[in-house]
Every structure is written in C-alpha cells, then in structure tokens.
Write a structure and sequence with these properties.
heterotrimer; A alpha+beta; B mainly alpha; C mainly alpha; B: mainly alpha; about 0% strand; C: 4 helices
C-alpha cells in the first residue's frame, strides 16, 4: 500500500476529527470586527452534522400550484365553497373567542343560516379568506352592500395599496379586469403623475421639472398627501417649455374621461392637452382651491396618446389622474416601492376621509410584506408590527366608515440561511401579526402565505417560473394570485347574497 | 444519530442530489478512500473500485440516468473497437455517424426536446425544463463530449490503439471527479492514466488539497456570496433596479461566474490529484485576455480545445478554399454550436453568436490591430485591450446569465436608457460589503500566478498534520460565508 | 527535389504570413510565427495545396506536429 495515499487518508481523517470536535464543543471564538461587532466563528451543529435526514421539501406548494394552473378547467361547485366558508367562519369565531382551534374544529359544524344546499364534502381545506362575523355582520358586508346597491350612474372604487409587488399597476390590473368583467366598468383608474417604474398599461414621459413626494421617501411638508400617499409638484425652471406629462396608452385601454386629482392650488392652473400629432385637443383650467378636487378634463374618450402641458405660477399639489369610464367598478393602484404600509399614517385623517368619500371607495385592500419581512427578526418586532398595522387599519376604518378593509398577508419569501435557500423563519409570525391586527380592527384577511403553500413554498413557485426567489411575483404568478383573491372574494359575495336572500325570506315568513 | 436517516441518505433523492460541498460526500469519500488506498497498486482492482464509486456517485446525483451513462459508454466502447479494426473507410464513416446519432441523440432529447417544441410554439407539460435539473441527466453535455473525443480520435487515427478493456472505457466516461461539469478530459489524456499504474508524490498531495481548499474558497466564499447578495436579485428582476445597479451587477456577474466555475474546477482537479490522476486545467486568468480570441484560450480551456479540434478544425478544413471567408463561417458555426451546447435557450445561442462575431472581428482586423500595437506603447495597448475585452465580456454575460431574452433586453435597456448615476452614492453605501467582495475578487484574479505557485509550494512542503490544521481553519473560514444571512434587498429610490 | 519543396514552402510561408524575413525549419510550429495560428493555419494549407497541386486529408493534417511533418507529407504526395 502506498505510503503517500495513507498520508492523504490521515489528513482527511484528522481534518474530519477537527471539524467534528469543533461541532461538538462549539467553542465561542469571537473576533472583534468592524463597527464594534464581534464575529463568532460557528460551524455546523453536531446534530445537523450527524443528521442525515433531509428537510421536508414543501410538497404542498407543488400540488397547490398545479391546482391553480389547472383552475380554468376545474370548476369547484359553488355550494361546496359556501359550505367551506361557513365552516371557516365557525373556526375563526372560535379563534377570536380564544378557544383552541382543535376544539372548535371538532365541534359538529352546522351552518349558521339554514342554507338549503345539497350536502357535499368540502374538497378544499384551505382557509384563505377570513371574513369574520361579529354581531351578525361581516367585515366585507359594507363592500358587498355597496356592490349590490350600486347604481349604474357612478363608479364604485376599490383601493389597492401596496409596495413594489404592486407597483406600476401590477397585480391590480388583473384584479380590475375580473371586477370589470363581472360588474362593468372600464379604464384603468388611478395613475400617478410620475413613478420610478414602468406602468403596465401605458408608457409615461415627463419633463424634468417634476418632483415626487411620498409617505415613504421624500416626504411632503407643505400640505396634505393624496389618498395614494403621494404628491406631485412641478417647478417652473425651464423657460423654453412648460412642465408636461405624456401618457401613451396601450391598445387595450379604453376609457371615457380623464380627470385630475389635485388640491392646495393657490393659483389657477391651465392644462392643455395635445394628441399624438401634437395638436391641441382641449384646454382646461384648474380652479383655485384649498380642498381635494376631482377635475374632469375635456379630453375626448379613448385618445391613445395624451400630452398635458401645465401653465401656472405655482404648482398645485397633484395626486394623480383617473382614466376611466363613467360607471361600474374601478380598482385604483396605490403602490409605492419600498413601502411597508405604515407610512400611510402620515396622511391627514380628515383629508383622507374626504378623498375616500368623494371617490366613493368602498373596499380598501392593503397588500404589504416584501419590505417588512427582512427586518422583522424577533418576537418583539412582530408585536410592534402588529400594533403598527392595527393603528393603520383603525385609522382607515375611521376615515372610511362605509367601506370594508381587506388585508392581504405577506407571501412566502426566501433568503440564504445556513447555506440553504429557505423561507424567512419569522414569516408565519409576521403573517399572524398582520392577521391579528386585521381581525382586531374588524378587517377581512386573505392569507397569501397559505395560498402559496406555507414555508418554503416560494421555491416551488420559483421553480415554476411564477416568482423570483426573493418573493416578487412574475407575470404568471400575478395572474394566479389576482385570480385566487378575486375568486375567494366572489365566494364570500355569493355567501353574502344567499344570506341576504335568507334574511328577506325570513322577514317575509315572519309577516 | 439517526440510523434510518443514514440509510435514507444513501438512496437517491431527487430533491437532494449529492454535491461536493456536503457532509455526506465527505463521509462517502472517506470510506471510499480507505479502500482505494489498499487497491491502488493493483490497476485492475483500482479501476473497478473507482468505476463502482463513480457509478454510485452518478446515481446519487442523477438517479436512474446512470443507465444512460452506461448505455452511451457501452455503445461507444464497441463502436470504437469496430472503427479501429475495420478496413473499410465507408464503414468507418457509418460507424462514426452511428455513434454521433446515439450520443447526440440522447443529448438532444434530454436537453433540447422541450426547447425545440417551445420554439415552434408547441406547449409541453414541462414548463421550464432547463431550470429543473431533475429532468436532465446532469453532466450529459460533458460526458457525451468526453466519449466523442475517443470516437473522433479513433476515426482520425490519432489513437495508436483502441481501448480493449470495457471497465477502463466506462471508467473513462464516468470518472466521477469531472463527470458533472468537466473539465472535459480527452481520451488520449485520461485513458493512458487509467490503464497504467499511477504514482502519488508529495506534490500530488500538496497540490490536491491546496486546490480543493482554494477552489472551495472561490466557489463558496466569493461566488456564492456574490450571487446571493448582489448578482442574482438583479438578474431575476432587472426592472426593479436602475441602469447603474444593473451595470454593477453585470461586472459582478462576470467575476462571479469565473470564481464559481473555476472554484468548482479547482476542487475537481484537486480530488483527481488525490486519486493520482492529472486533469487538464480549465482556466488561465481569463480577464487578462486582450481580445476574445485570446479569451477562449484562457476560459473553459477544455471546451474551447474540444470545439477547436473537433468542430472548428473540421469546418475550416472543409471550407479552406474560401480562405478568410471560410474561416469566418467556420468560426460563426462553431460558436453557434457552442451557444447551443451551453443551454437550451436563445440567450445562450445569442451569447455564443456574439462571441463568434467578436472572433470574426478579430480575424478581419488582425492586420490593423498589429499595426496599431506597433505604434502605441505596449503597456497602454495592453491595458486598453484588456479593458475593451472585459467590457465586451461583461455585456455579453447579460445574455449568458439572464433566464430569457426579455430579461436580457430589459437589462440592456435599463443600462443604456435609464442609467442614473445619481444613485451611485446610495448604492455604494447600501452594498458596501458585496462591492468590496467584487473588488477583492478582481484583485485576486489579477494577482500574478507566481504568488499562487509559491503558496502552493509552501503548502506542499508542510508536514501532513500541519496540512490538516490549515485545511481545518480554511473550512471554518469558508463556512462563515456559507452561513451569513443575506444582504437585505434594498430598493433604492431617487 | 527536396530543396525545391523546402524553398517553395518557405516562399508560401513568407507570403501567407506576411513576413519576408521568415526562414522555416523542421521544428517550427505555430508558436514560432506571429501570424500563424489556428485561424490562419488552414488558409496556409489551402495555399500549399494549390501551389503544389496536392490534396490533404483531415487525418493527415491532424497528425502533423510541425513544419517538418508538413514538408515530409508534401514530398510523399509528390513522389507518388
């Protein structure tokens, strides 16, 4: 036997002995390092070293995704869905009353209302949308009520707040499409004057003298924020041309009118609109005002390319544009990249209430997570997060007494931990914090984390090309999420309608 | 210790294929080596042992695809013998074609079938096959090329004799150190080593371990760190970042891919040394190249040599009467195929073609460049050449690295249309450590090779216990990078 | 005969590789001539084939290691 080979073998053995010994004893060797932080030299825990079994890969996510992708061909029976929902309500009510979940689930489930349905086994155990019942009323009732009684002569709005997941009308556009298909409506709703990212429905160009203020960065000190949490102002620093904005809308965008949202106008502002051929097609004057104003422009319907020129001594506070029809449902995208949602606290409550009322916003959706998750690394921070969100939801509840609030929880996100790509460990707790805050504030909650499949599901979503590893949805992923959210909302809506029917027939029966 | 867990881990698990940087591989290799030491001097026994381990290794990595490996090596074993011994030129040609059909057929099916379907708009149930390794036998591009060197060399009468020993030939193809991602050992380099007794010297021991440690350092400490904290996120979603950030990610990706691939290659060569085998290197300070032609003599050298010897040479030979035009066509064709070889995606194909065009440019302008070089002082000429080449390589890496053409286009658009230098200060503040790592990596790359050689020699001369201690410290250090939390995603606004 | 082949080959080398001072030796390879590399090699071979009126096969070229092998191969073909 070659002596040299034996030497190699000895080196390997000795090396392994050292490593195992280090794992076993785990001495804390600390090196003083930059920023007065000590760096501890760690090695694999002895348990992990000896444990040859594998982490359970998230197989649930794979089957869920397969289901979502096949959804079009499989129609779940409405009745089954409603049965699930009513059963879910029982469970949630149990949670709120501090009963243990297993106790409540073991109780024989009887629907609260006597809905006459063929008895079927629930096929989907996923509790995604929690629309809790409290004193006979549900969180989403205000919205459903508005939907049912909505007249053809006005627009019913849904506000969709979010972060980079939603920016530039992403996700919202798919939700909007579904609502408009079912309830009517056209156009794309709220469009900010400028943004740091591209918009999925139009190309935007602007002169260089615009400034964008948001509740998240570059805060606005001289007035109030728009309902979107943004303010736009121009400066007259270019003597050659007036400030301008241009929107080139994609073919599928059809609308009947364009309005400007603005306030705090100390002087009049003239808005000239030019078309693709640089011809002036109309001129509007924005009157002086202190309060929030929606000014419809004289722009004829469905102009694909519009360039707005602004002439004023002082810039008003602009909040954005509305590009839409005259009726039906509209979904407004209020996304700010990098935002965790809590910045919205900076919107003046009265001003907020006024805007919501004027706009007739009846459902407010909060969808935050991506910018929160990496920073919540302790139970304490979770608790703080819950309180912050509770504060935010209560503020909006007060500002929008006739609207419902729906909170979409953080989806699964992964990072590199201990050499493996895994979900952020605090995600379930973060989801719980968001859920608790929502339920305490009387809001509905949609558990995106569970919809995706829970811990480490993001890996399955990434493998199927639906998301990036950091959790950001790709186009196909956005479609799926929007569809699932909309479908779950509609199931609740159907339940609501049935309940109303029941109440009416009860009332008639009692007469 | 979990006994049933150990048994589980010895079987193939598609979600957890074996890789070099795992505790399991360490343990298996140790057990293997204990027996290898004893069998080393008996060539036949040694080869049998090595073959069994190689096949088991491949099974652990790729499951039942080990059967494909066996099928390909077996058919080429017989075809090689037949080509060598038959007198008929026509039959030789037929056999060569047969081998090509079989080998490239497997390769084409597993790697390219879905891609071809998609290109013609036919949806397949596999949505993104080239992301999931499970559907492709790992390393098939490499071991097919390996076995083809044998067939080609037999056909071209470069081999004095064919391989008569079946075990030897299958071992050549399935040799576990370089089965996964090369270097592509030629039959005429590796087979002689397999057939003969080998000698291990102090140099083998020292260089072997040193390469493994430096390779692991390059791959885990530098490359993986950069991927997770800078490069991947930008390439995943380029539109979330400004042009400046995209450009920084691009330069980082260039050095990251080098450290990743060369680190892996070093580990492979090191392991081979510990077994007594010598495998050709794959890299030689690639970013010192003054033009793209030179780059390919320094980057993925074994692949480049393969392409040169078996493709370019054949094409340019057939087209030799067209002189420079023939050479250019040969170059473009070769690099087109190289692009296809790298992956079943239009991004790779475009990347390959861009390099082909760059070399065509080199060919056409050679005279002019030589004249310019005579006029400009050498160091300046060298510096400018390196700078231009590095930029070309970085910009073409966008194609190589992006998961599809749309993303690549988005990156180009962002860099050239949406640069925004104003964000630079914020970016350096937010990404200080990753950026430091990028600089560190480039500096390491540009250090003289002699320094590396000197360090290696010092290590070779050390006592074996000291070698083990140094290895231990190195692994601890490398593990720290393995273990750090990722840099949070910071979306900078302006 | 031998002399002619060598000097003719020398001329060809000088012309193809644009170096009038070039003097070929049997041990010469691509490393020794500035403009001679894998990209210009086969162009040179094509010129050799044309000037000598011969044709090479791929496996013959692959076996050549230096100028000496090339010269010998040319002579063999001319002597046939």
């Amino acid at each position: 036997m070659s002596g040299k080979l034996f030497k190699i073998f000895l080196i390997i053995l000795l090396l392994e002995a050292f490593l195992i010994a280090y794992s076993f004893f785990s001495p804390k060797i600390n090196l003083p390092f930059l920023n007065d932080k000590d760096i501890e030299i760690k090695f694999i825990e002895l348990d992990d070293l000896m444990d040859f079994s594998y982490n359970k890969v998230n197989l649930v996510a794979d089957s869920l995704i397969a289901g979502y992708l096949k959804k079009d061909s499989v129609q779940q029976k409405d009745s089954t869905k409603i049965k699930n929902i009513l059963k879910n309500r029982e469970i949630v009510a149990g949670i709120l009353e501090n009963k243990s979940e297993s106790d409540t689930a073991k109780k024989a489930v009887k629907p609260k209302t006597d809905v006459k349905l063929p008895f079927e086994e629930p096929t989907n155990n996923l509790i995604a949308l929690i629309n809790q019942e409290h004193n006979g009323k549900c969180a989403l009732d205000a919205f459903f009520n508005a939907l049912t009684h909505h007249k053809d002569t006005s627009i019913l709005r849904i506000a969709h707040y979010g972060d980079s997941q939603l920016e530039g009308d992403r996700v919202t556009s798919y939700i909007r499409r579904r609502f408009q298909e079912k309830f009517g409506g056209s156009g794309i709703g709220f469009v900010p004057c400028t943004d740091i990212t591209s918009h999925v429905n139009l190309r935007r160009y602007e002169s260089s003298n615009w400034k964008r203020y948001t509740v998240f960065k570059n805060k606005y000190k001289n007035g109030n924020y728009g309902v979107s949490g943004t303010v736009f102002r121009f400066t007259n620093n270019n003597y050659k041309q007036n400030p301008w904005l241009k929107f080139d809308m994609y073919k599928f965008v059809s609308y009947q009118s364009i309005s400007i949202l603005y306030g705090n106008a100390l002087t009049e502002c003239i808005v000239n609109t030019y078309n693709l051929n640089k011809e002036k097609i109309c001129s509007d004057t924005l009157p002086i005002t202190k309060s929030f104003t929606i000014q419809k422009l004289k722009v004829p319907s469905s102009q694909r390319s519009v360039k707005f020129e602004f002439i004023a001594d002082n810039s008003p506070d602009f909040y954005g544009f509305l590009i839409e029809g005259e009726n039906g449902v509209q979904v407004d995208n209020y996304a700010i990249r990098g935002h965790s949602g809590t910045g919205l606290m900076d919107i003046d409550s009265d001003y907020l209430a006024k805007q919501i009322k004027l706009l007739n916003t009846r459902l407010i959706i909060f969808q935050f997570g991506a910018n929160v998750v990496p920073y919540i690394t302790s139970n304490n921070k979770c608790k703080q997060l819950e309180e912050k969100y509770y504060e935010l939801f209560m503020k909006f509840k007060a500002a929008a007494p006739n609207a419902s609030i729906l909170v979409v929880g953080a989806g699964d996100m992964a990072t590199y931990i201990h050499g493996k790509f895994q979900s952020y460990p605090f995600l379930p707790k973060i989801r719980d914090a968001q859920k608790n805050a929502a339920l305490r504030a009387g809001c509905a909650f949609w558990d995106l984390f569970e919809v995706m499949g829970g811990m480490n599901s993001i890996i399955a979503w990434t493998n199927k090309g639906l998301t990036a590893k950091d959790g950001h949805l790709y186009d196909k992923g956005r479609r799926i999420i929007a569809k699932e959210l909309f479908d779950d909302l509609m199931d609740e809506y159907n339940t609501y309608l049935l309940k109303q029917q029941q109440l009416i027939s009860d009332a008639e029966g009692n007469q | 210790m979990n006994i049933s867990g150990i048994f589980e881990s010895l079987k193939f698990s598609s979600n957890h294929p074996l890789f070099y940087n795992s505790v399991l591989f360490f343990a298996l290799f140790t057990l293997f080596y204990a027996v290898y030491m004893l069998a080393f001097n008996k060539v036949k026994l040694r080869n049998l042992l090595l073959l069994l381990f190689s096949l088991y290794f491949y099974f652990k990595v790729s499951g039942l695809f080990v059967i494909i490996l066996l099928l390909i090596s077996t058919s080429d074993y017989f075809i090689g013998l037949w080509i060598f011994y038959t007198k008929s030129n026509a039959l030789k040609k037929i056999l060569l074609t047969l081998s090509l059909l079989i080998d490239l057929g497997y390769l084409a099916y597993y790697k390219y079938f879905d891609f071809v379907l998609q290109t013609f708009g036919i949806e397949n149930s596999h949505i993104y096959p080239f992301i999931s390794n499970i559907l492709v036998p790992i390393g098939i591009s490499y071991f097919v090329f390996k076995t083809l060197t044998y067939i080609f060399d037999i056909y071209r009468e470069r081999m004095d004799e064919p391989e008569h020993n079946y075990i030897n030939y299958v071992l050549y193809v399935s040799f576990f150190p370089n089965i996964l991602a090369g270097p592509i050992s030629k039959a005429r380099d590796l087979l002689p080593q397999i057939k003969n007794k080998l000698v291990i010297t102090e140099e083998h021991i020292g260089r072997g371990f040193f390469l493994i440690l430096t390779g692991a350092f390059k791959k885990v400490f530098v490359a993986d760190y950069l991927a997770n904290n800078l490069v991947d996120r930008v390439f995943d979603t380029p539109t979330l970042y400004t042009g400046f950030e995209n450009l920084m990610a691009t330069y980082s990706a260039t050095i990251q891919i080098y450290f990743d691939f060369s680190g892996y290659t070093d580990i492979v060569i090191g392991i081979a040394f510990l077994l007594g085998f010598t495998i050709q290197p794959n890299f030689n300070k690639p970013f010192l190249a003054q033009n793209v032609t030179e780059f390919w003599r320094r980057w993925h050298i074994t692949l480049s040599q393969w392409m040169n010897e078996y493709l370019f040479y054949q094409f340019s030979f057939s087209l030799r009467r067209f002189r420079m035009f023939g050479v250019i066509v040969a170059v473009l064709l070769t690099f087109f195929i190289s692009g296809v070889w790298h992956g079943a995606n239009w991004t790779f194909i475009l990347w390959g073609c861009s390099h082909g065009l760059a070399i065509a440019y080199d060919v056409i302008t050679k005279g002019t460049r030589v004249s310019i070089a005579k006029v400009i002082p050498a160091p300046i000429y060298r510096f400018i050449s390196i700078f231009i080449t590095l930029n070309f390589l970085s910009l073409s890496i966008i194609l190589f690295r992006s998961s599809d053409i749309t993303k690549a286009m988005q990156m180009y658009e962002t860099i050239f249309m949406n640069f925004d230098l104003g964000i630079a200060r914020d970016w350096f503040a937010a990404y200080t450590y990753p950026f430091a790592m990028v600089l560190f990596a480039y500096v390491l790359h540009y250090l003289p090779q002699q320094w590396n050689n000197s360090l290696t020699n010092i290590y070779i001369k050390m006592h074996w216990t000291l070698k083990a201690i140094i290895a231990f410290v190195a692994i601890l250090l490398i593990y720290q990078a393995f273990n750090t939390d990722t840099q949070p995603f910071i979306y900078l606004e302006f | 005969m031998e002399q002619d082949v060598s000097s003719k080959l020398n001329e060809i080398f000088r012309k193809v590789f644009k170096d009038n001072a070039l003097q070929i030796r049997d041990e010469m390879t691509t490393n020794d001539v500035e403009r001679w590399d894998s990209l210009s090699h086969l162009g040179m071979i094509a010129t050799v084939e044309k000037e000598f009126g011969i044709k090479f096969r791929l496996k013959e070229l692959v076996a050549m290691k230096d100028v000496g092998d090339l010269r010998k191969s040319i002579e063999e073909k001319l002597n046939k």
